[in-house]
Every structure is written in structure tokens, then in C-alpha cells.
Amino acid sequence: MEVALAIVIGVLYAGGLYLMMRRNLIQLIIGLGLLSHGANLLIFTAGGLRKGGAPILAEGEKAFSALPADPLPQALILTAIVISFAVTAFALVLFLRTYQTLGTDDVDAMKETDT
Amino acid sequence: MFTLLTFCFAAALLAPWLHRRLPAYAGAVLALAPASVFIWLFFQLPAVMHGHPVEQSFLWVEGLDLEFALRLDGLSLLFALLISGIGTLILFYTQGYFKGHPQQGRFLMYIIAFMTSMLGVVLSDHLLLVFIFWELTSFTSYLLIGFNHEKEAARTAALQAMLVTVLGGLFLLVGSILLAQAAGTWRISEIIQRGAEIQAHAHYLPILILICIGAFTKSAQFPFHFWLPNAMQAPTPASAYLHSSTMVKAGIYLLARLHPALGGTEEWAAILIPIGTITFLLGAVMAIGQTVLKRLLAYTTVSALGAMILLLGLGTPYTIKAMMGFVLAHALYKATLFMIAGGITHETGGETSIDKLGGLRKAMPISFACALLAGLSMGGFPPFLGFVAKETWLHALGDYPLLMIATMIGGAAYVLVGFSIGWRPFMGEMPAGLHAHEMPPAMRVGPIILAVACLGLAFFAGTTGHTLIEPAASAIAGTPLKVHLHLWAGFNKYLVISLATLAIGIGFYRARPLWLNLAQRMAGWARFGPDATYQKLFASILKFAAWQTRLLQTGHLRHYIRYIVLATTVLVFTAFLRAGGLHKLEGLTPLTVRTGALAVLMILATVATVHSKSRLRSILSMGVVGYCMALLFTFFGAPDLAMTQLVIETLTVILMALAFYHLPSFRHSSSVRTHAIDLTIAIGGGVVVTLLVLAALDVQTPTPISDYYLEHSYTKAHGRNVVNVILVDFRALDTLGEITVLTLAALGAGALLKLRPKKKEDRP
Amino acid sequence: MTSLILRTATRYMFPPLLVFSIYLLLRGHHLPGGGFVGGLTAGSAFALYALSFSVAAARKLLRIDPFDMIATGLFIALISGLPPLLSGEAFLTGIWWEIPIRPSVTVSLGTPIIFDIGVYLVVLGVLLSLVFLLAEEE
Question: Out of A37, A80, B52, B527, which residue is the most buried by the measure of CB atoms under 10 Å away?
Fold first, then answer.
């Protein structure tokens, strides 16, 4: 299982990186999205996969009888998902504005504008 | 001592303010700071003389074992007296030299800060503390040399001096650390008692070489001597102070200080004696061909520093005594001559060449007297301190006939230079068009006192030797020495040699036009010298920087991503291999059909996302990846994640669709070659990540932090959903940070969209 | 984008979605849910409304500006961290009160729930400001 997920993560990274090296702005954003999926899955897998159920204590119990899934990576990923959404949205707005200002969405043509 | 140092630094900070308040007397008022140090030191003299150093220390940085340890022994005392005494006079001189100069306050600040740093160097008893003050002197010296920063030559010289000395400082730092390790302590007073231990240590030679490089750069030894003559771009008060009597002696001081620990070995002699001799002769010979007042003095300073290193390298009790005597004599006459040289240039409206000066004796009688006294002391004429020093020196070299000959040649050059400054500008006829007048009183004080000291201390040679030289020499030797200086040591062969040197020197002076002619012919050789090497090195570093910037900083975002990914991939992969590659994977969860199918689906969706030429298909495929992630989260006990992922994925697709409405479809494509390169790099990155995940599975922390959360979630935080409890209770501060990031993203996006470059239609 | 079916559906779906989001928020401490998911669900409800009717209508329905909502949320989250300071504990340490409703039933109320409400408001505000801004773009 872990091996399969590791391969999936590698594919997500490769796809994300490849798209980020393209010339179209939109592909860059999509690449960013794939990359953040890959990163989240990486944390999830590296944190250890357990089939013990959700880390939620059943009503009336004071302690877990069996070891549940690790809650820490979950908490990390939860915020990471929301943040990467905000970052993607920000990147979208940034590129939209760039496109409107420069009149191009070709990353290569944005070379001389940083002055 | 700490109080005095703080007081002096405070004086430096006050200088600009004080100068605004009291433009005419700022120098004199500020001179109170070094003067009080001088007086305090003076009162410590009896105790130190009898071998009771003054000590003070407190812990400064605990983790670094850094103590603010100060220690005043004989060696420190002599140097500190010179620094504070000449410093006081220099401040007076500055007041006259920079009279009416708007930037005088700035200069005073720099020079007092420098003085304090220099005091710190000689007073510190902790190697790191020495280094800190050492670097501070380099830094303040940079500011002083570059004081006239509107002149390019001044900026270049300042940078050169800084680069050379700071580079040396780095060597010194490494050397100090090694030394402290070898000795097992940072305290210099303890290190110098463990000489045998250090010299037997495996790192002895590297330590010696590193510390020598540090000292040689600072003290302008061959081949690092070139920065000192160039540093004459500094205003004269700075040259007189830094480049004659104080900063350049820091290297001498350090080697003298560490002599009991490092000295007395064959290696020590093999490094110091040749370098010292070469520098001594080179400086003397180069000085002969100079015509500019300050450069003449600068080269003789280089030479004198070489002589000190040479004497220190020999390391016999005689040579050590001779060295300290010479340090004192040199500081007195060199500071005087520098001040006179600056005075001449100042009072004649900027004339710097001795060949264009003459007949100044009538216009500047007091300067003439001072210059003559100091010049004669420099030449080593009786009955001056220079004579006493030179005789002790010759005496000490009694067993080394070759070095004796070298000393005679150098000594003759000193006579020439002494006459060139103390005699030549004042005698003969005044060239037409030259106007001169006497220096103002403030500028006269220093030269008068120092010139009188050149003469006076010689008459009290015995006392001087006993009170000043003896404690210092004992500190260098590490054992108590007796010093007996005599103005008249009786008629012996050294007197004959000394007098013969004087005669040769006068002959040299007579033949000066010949030397100048020769120097001009040799000028072409300079391009093989260290200065030219430095210039070439400097230029090639700049060229290299420009080249690699052009290569890497293309301005294309895609190239930057390439470099980053490639570098990370290679580095991580190397680390992965060095860590032993993949271990045997154990305890894996078995692959079920549904998760397997999900994994395949995700891979396919990713490929579709990358491959698709249509924007909509591309984002929808990415959405599929996201939904698969959500499913995966439900399989492995993460319902919160699944819910969040589901909603976010939907919103992302909506948001992208909204934005793409305004953006064009994929139009630009790269060449096949670029695609191939990028694909290779990207796949390389992916493979490394896969390997990394597999390697991470083997990492097992003994007790994961999450156990604590699982255990205490309900009992302490009243929550059954551990993930949520972590977010809002255990790690609430992190979450607070995260919602702040969210806020910033929204604000940033809002600002980008609302602040338009072109006004289309303003929303309320 | 403004089809009749979508509008009608939205009109019926909007109130339950909003209620569901608050339910998610409040139950989050014991069951899956919480401020993040709750805020996102409420945000989706408003986004749906904005898409099926208009951004202006959605803004009107929301009453307050999304940015004000973000500020309020951050403020609430910050405030919720202050009470423990009074009793000398670290910032943001959870404090709980047992409130008896009937002799046998008590409800636990704590500062973490207030903090979660702050998170809810920030997430909702951020989401809506982004969606509204992009949708309003010419």
C-alpha cells in the first residue's frame, strides 16, 4: 500500500514540477495544485498509515482501546489544504492581474518587467 | 577597565553631537576620554611593574563560553599607554587639522571608536574577545581611510585595507579556535602558560600559520604590505594614529602576546625571521624612492614593522628587549613625523611632495624643531631614543652577522627618510609660489610633546627601560627579564657599527637624486608586485560573479524552477545514497483492491492533467485527483480531512473557472528539446520524492508526540475529536498563525484586484 | 450561469447548508467537523448563491463585508486566548466551564470553542472575499 502511495506521490510531484516549468501561467497554477496534493499525501503517508479508525473517541469512553490513525499529520494537512487553497487563489489573482497589466500570459515574456 | 572602555565608546557616540555644540573645542573636550585612560594606566604602573596584572571579567555569552575578560600586564600596559597617550594628542591635532570642517564630528567619532577598539585588543584576555575588537579595528579603519568618500582613490584604498585585514582576521579566527582547542581554554593568560602542551599538539603548525597570516595582514608584512601605503588616502590624523603607532602594531602585539605559547620553536623562527627580514628591507628600499611625504613614512613603517617581526622571530631575551624598545621609539618619532607631514601639507595649501618644498624653517620654526628631533631619532642619532633603541637592537643581533648587515642597510635608509622629512622641506630656498605658516596651537601640542619625549626618554633611558620595557619584555618572554637601557653604553663595536650606519645613511641622503632616478626606472616592475596581484584577483572575482549571474539569473521563472528542482534532487539523492539507500521495507499495510484502483486512477488523472491541451479538462482532471485524495483520507481514518478536501476541491474548481474566464487558453509552447529536458528533471524529482517517502517509512520515533494528544485529548481538553482538539487547543497558536496567513492572502488578492493601474469602473 | 433550476435549487439548499455549517462547527470538538470545514461549507453556500443569482445579491445577503468578517474572526480568535493569561497560564490555553442546564445534564463550554468560531469566520471571510472579487472581475 505504502509503495503504491509513494509512486502516486512521485507522479504528483513530477507532474506538478513539469507543469510549473511550462510557459503558460495557468499551467503554472495547476502545477502548483498538483504539487500541494503531492505534499499533503507525502505527509499523510510518511506519518504512517493505520487502519485503526479515525482518532475520535467514542461516546462514553475515556481512552482509546485500539490505536487509531495518527491525528498529528491530519491536523497538519487540514491546515495545509486550506492554506494551499488560499495560495492558489492568491496566485490566480496575481496572474490575472499580471495578464491584464502586461497583456501576455507567457512566462518567458515577463523577463524584463521586474525593474 | 570595562568602565573605561564603555566611557570611550560613549565618547565616540557623543562626538558628532558635541561637535555641533562646540565646533571649536570638540577635539579637546573629547581628548578627556583617552587622557583619563592614560592617567588611570599611569597609576597602574607600579603594580604591573611588580608583576601584579590588573584583571577583570564577567560572563558575556554563556553558551559560547565567552567571557568579557580584561587583563592589564606589562605588555598590554605599554601598548595601552601608547594608544591612549598618542590618542589624546591626536584628538587635539584633529581639532586643528579639521578646523571648520563640517564632518569633523564624524571623524572624531570614527577615531575614538577606533581607539577604543584598539584598547580592547590589547586589554582582552579572551581569544574571541581579541578577535571581536580586532575586527572592530579593521572596520573603523575602513571608515577612517575612506573618510574622504567622494574620492575614488580613498574608497578603493579603504576597501583594499578592509579586504586584506578582514581576510587575515578570518585566518586569525580559525587559528584562535584551534589554539583554544589545543590549549583547552580561551583565556590568553592561561594559554601562555601551556606553551609546551600546545607546541606538542598535532595542530601546532596550522595554528601558527593561521595566526601569523592574521598578524601579517594587519601588520602589513610582505606580501600583504601593499595596503598600508595605499591607506595613506586617510586624513593625516588617522594615518598618524592608525598606520604608525597603533593598528598596524596589533599584529605585532598579538604575536608578542602569544610568544610564550607559540614561540621559541624552529617553525616560529622559520616563518617570522624571513618574512620580517624581507619586509624590513623591502620597506626600507621602497621608501628611498618615494617623494610623497606620507608614502615615504608609510614605507618606513612597513619596514619598521618588519624589523619588529624579525626581532620577535629571533626570540632571544635580547631581541625581545630590543623589539620593545624599538616599538616605543618608533611610535614616538613616527607619530611626530606623520603629524608634521600632515601639518606641512595643511599649511602650504596641499603640497605633498618633498621635492617641491623647501625653506620652510622661517615660516614654521616650531614644526622644524619637532621634525628635526623626530627625524634624528628615526635616523638613530645620539642622544635620541632612536639611538638607544638601535644600539640595543644591534647588540641583540650580535650573533647574526648577516642580519647585522641588513640592519645597517635599513638603518641607513631610515637616516635618509629622517632627513628627507626633518631637514629637506625646511632648508634651502622656498620655491616660488609656495606660501606657508606655522601650524595652529592645537596641531602643535602633539608633535612638541612627542618630539621632546624622543629626546627626554633617552636621557632617562634607565628608568624608561626599567618601568616600561622591562614588564613588557618579561610578558613576551614569559619569564622575568631585566632591562638596562643606556644612552651611553661605552665604546664598543656596536657603537662603531651604529655610527657607521649613520655615515652610510648620510651618504644615501646625498645620493638621493640617484635613487629617485633608479626608482623611476623600476616603476614598471610594480605590475609583478602583490598590489597588482590583488587588483587582478579583485577584477577576476568581479568578472566571475558577473559570469555566474548571467548564467544562473536568466530572468526566466522556468529556469529558476529548473535550477532549484535540479539542485534539490541531486542533493537529496546524494544524501539518500550516503544514508545507505533503501532499507528493507517491513510492516507495510497490504494493498487492497480499492486502494490499488484509487492509486491507478490518481496516476491516470495526473497524467491527464499534465497532458491535456484544454484548460477545462486540465482542471477537472486535477479535481479528480483531489476527490481521490478525499476518498483515500476516508479509507485511512481521516474523516475531517476528507470533508475539507472535498469542499476545497469543489471551490478550487469554481475559482479557477471564474479566473480562467479572463485568461486565454494555452497558447505558448516550448521546443521539443525544452519539453524533454523539463520532463527529465521533473521525473527525476518525482523519483527522488518516491524514494524519500519509502525511506521515511523506516523512521520510527520511540514515542510519537501524537500519543500525548491521543491520551489527553478528552481528559484535559474535553474533546473527543483529537484532530480538532490539536487545531484549536494543543496547537492553537499555530492555527492562529495559519488563519493570519489566510487573511493576508485575501488582503493581498483584494489589494491586487481593487488597486487597478487603469480605472475601468470603480466599485464603491 | 443563472439558470432557473439552479436558482430554485439554491433557494432551497441555501438555508440547510448554512445550518449544516454551524452544526459542523459546533460538533467539531467531538465529531468530524470544526471551524475549517464549517467555514468552508458556509462559504460554498454563499458562493453557490453568488453564482446562481449575482455577487451583489450574495453580498446583500451576507450583510457585512467579507473583510470585516475576517477582521472580526481574527479578533475573536485572539480574544479567546486572553482568559488564561489572567490565571497565569500560557496564551491560548483552553479553559472550560461546566454549565448546568438541568440537575443531570451539564454542557461544557470552553475558550477553544470560541477560538473555533473565530477560525470559522476567518475561513468564511477569506473564501467569500476571494470568490466575490474574482466573480466581480470585468
Answer: A37
Instruction: Report the residue from B656, B685, B694 with minimal CB separation from A13.
Output: B685
Any A CB within 8 A of C44 CB: no
Segment 20-59 of chain C within 8 Å of chain B by CB: 24, 28-37, 40-41, 43-44, 47, 51
Which single residue is written with the C-alpha cell 563560553?
B65
Task: Test C130 with A79 for CB contact under 8 angstroms.
Answer: no
Put simply, whether A106 touches B (Cβ < 8 Å) is yes
Say yes or no: C1 contacts chain B, CB-CB below 8 A.
Answer: no
Q: What are phi and psi of B638, to 5 degrees?
A: -135, 70
For residue B740, which residues of chain C lie inside 8 Å, CB to CB? 74
B585 and A8 within 8 Å at the Cβ level: the answer is no
Residues B130, B176 contacting (CB under 8 angstroms): yes
The distance of Cα C106 from the centroid of its chain, to the nearest Å, equals 25
pLDDT confidence tier of residue B763, bands split at 50, 70 and 90: very low
Mapped onto helix, strand or coil, the DSSP state of residue B490 is coil
Taking the CB of residue B692, how many other CB atoms lie within 10 A of it? 19
Domain count across chain C = 1
- Average of per-residue pLDDT across B161-189: 91
Q: Is C126 on the interface with A (CB under 8 A)?
A: yes
The chains in contact with chain B, meaning 3 or more Cβ pairs closer than 8 Å, are: A, C
Q: Which architecture, in CATH terms, is A2-50+69-114?
A: Orthogonal Bundle (1.10)
* Nearest neighbour of A94 by CB, restricted to B554, B666, B752: B752
Per the structure block, which three cell numbers stand in for B23? 565646533
* B383 preceded by a cis bond (ω within 30 of 0): yes
Residue B51 to residue B473: CA distance in whole angstroms: 12
Do residue A86 and residue C31 have CB atoms under 8 angstroms apart?
no
**C-alpha span between B646 and B662 (Å, rounded):** 26
C-chain residue closest to A80, CA distance: C36
Interatomic CA distance for residues A84 and A81, integer angstroms: 5
How many residue pairs bridge chain A and chain C with CB atoms within 8 Å of each other? 20
- Measured between its terminal Cα atoms, the distance across chain B in Å is 68
Range of the domain at C15: 4-136
Residues B271-327: pLDDT tens digits? Answer: 999 999 999 988 888 888 788 888 888 888 999 999 999 999 988 888 888 898 889
**CB-count exposure of residue B621 (10 Å: 0-12, 13-18, 19+):** buried
3-state secondary structure of B229: helix
Q: In this structure, which long-range contacts are made by residues B628-631, counting pairs with CB atoms below 8 Å and at least 24 apart in sequence?
A: B628/B598, B628/B601, B628/B602, B629/A37, B629/A40, B629/A41, B629/B602, B631/B598
Domain positions in chain A are 2-50+69-114
Q: Note whether C6 contacts B: Cβ–Cβ < 8 A.
A: no
Among residues B523, B38, B601, which one has the least CA distance to residue B286?
Answer: B523
